């Protein structure tokens, strides 16, 4: 999933969208209420793009976890984040069978389910497209079928010093 500019802010409910960088703070917009506010430098802010889930082998980025949930849930939502801890563990084991049981807590599972459901409700679950190599655009041709001669761009003009 594409999670760029989606933020979780410590002590705040829900998810936020990054809007702008201020002098001493960042401007964010709450995804559900659309209310804008400032978040100061002393507040812990995490981008969902930077969050990963611990597994026995390697860490799995949150975007990939959301992709797996989307494949399992189809068009539906994930488990309710307020479900019983044991139900959350069973659900999470279906999603990531090799998650680290020592490092991933029930509170983490609740956040994953809550964040997924918020993004699902707002239709913000956009699957990442595999990176493709940049292709050169086909050359333009004139009506006669000839390729026009390209014009060399000049660099910035140099000012002449007054003598």
CATH class: Mainly Alpha
Number of E-type strands: 7
Radius of gyration: 24 Å
The helix/strand order is EEEEEEEHHH
Stated plainly, the CATH topology is called: Arc Repressor Mutant, subunit A
Known CATH architecture: Orthogonal Bundle
Sketch the major β-sheet: 5 strands, antiparallel
Low-pLDDT stretches are 131-137, 147-160
Described by the principal axes of the CA atoms, the overall outline is: globular
Helical proportion? 10-25%
Proportion of residues in β-strands = 15-25%
Structural class: alpha+beta
Kindly report how far apart the N and C termini lie: 61 Å
List the total number of helices: 3
Query: How many domains is the backbone divided into?
Result: 1
In spatial order, strands of the major sheet run 4-3-2-1-5
Mean pLDDT: 81
Outline:
With 163 residues, this protein is an alpha+beta fold.
Task: Give your account of this protein's structure.
This protein is of the alpha+beta class. The protein has a single domain (6-121), classed as Arc Repressor Mutant, subunit A. 24% of the residues lie in helices and 17% in strands. It is built from 3 helices and 7 strands; from the N terminus they run βββββββααα. The protein has helices at residues 62-73, 85-95, 106-121, and strands at residues 6-9, 16-21, 25-30, 36-40, 45-47, 52-53, 60-61. A 5-stranded antiparallel sheet has the order 4-3-2-1-5, with no helix packed on it. The protein has a two-stranded antiparallel sheet with strand order 6-7. The longest helix has 16 residues, at 106-121. The radius of gyration is 24 Å and the shape is globular.
